[in-house]
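ARCHIVE CARD
Drawer: 12
Card no.: 0347
Subject: one protein chain, sequence and derived structure
Cross-reference: see card 0346
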Amino acid sequence: MALYGAYNEMLAGMGLTDRIVARTDADDKPAAIAALPVIGTHMRPNLERVLAVKPDLVLQTAGRGEAEQAAANLAKLGVPVAVFSIHDFDSLFAAIDRIGVLTGAQKRAAELDASLKKRLAAVAVSAPGGKKPKVFFEVRSGNLLAAGKGSMVDAVIRAAGGENAVSLDKKLVRLTDEELLRLAPDVCLTQRGPMNAEARSMADRPEYASLPCVKNRRAFVVDEALFSRPGPGSVDAVEELARILAGKPATPAREARP
């Protein structure tokens, strides 16, 4: 079972959905897991509920103290736990490979890797030449929070043929409005999801009217789960952003493959 939704996507991509025995209250995709027992939240799973479903393996993501402590508590109770740190496509493929080993599905993991890499290569081949557009990714509005170069979002931007407008090597970077205006990004993405539930396009906020992305009508609202959650969906995000950078219509986000 996964304490972070992206691992459900990886298991689904390997055709292992039927092995998932429970889910967190925030994760109901792929659709096949929606009826499974709920064991609490990503960072605060109910240990008794986890033990009740008797998992052979629990998957968790690194980076948040509470999440890692929950994983450590489960390990102390004798539950096998694997914790991964995924921040780019190399670490994503490494996690898929390792999960393949842990589940005895190495061949399926290799097939998923190959499929995702083929799609990334197709985007790279079709990317236009010349100067790369500067892309700003707004994680949270209000107290402006952006994705830096230490994030999976940065990997998505680069794979799609863009350049992160934020140059700091951090996952999250707090900025002032003045700093954003100075960056003058060509494309602005504002995520909508649990971290930014009241998301609005920068085009709808007068304080950003002078930004190139607003003047050129290239300010968009995107799905947080697709862009910010490292997993197979990150390749969907690359394809989506590549369409945006090419000036093509965006398409609805795809679910993890069964």
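Annotation on reverse: The radius of gyration is 19 Å. DSSP finds ten helices and eight strands in the chain.
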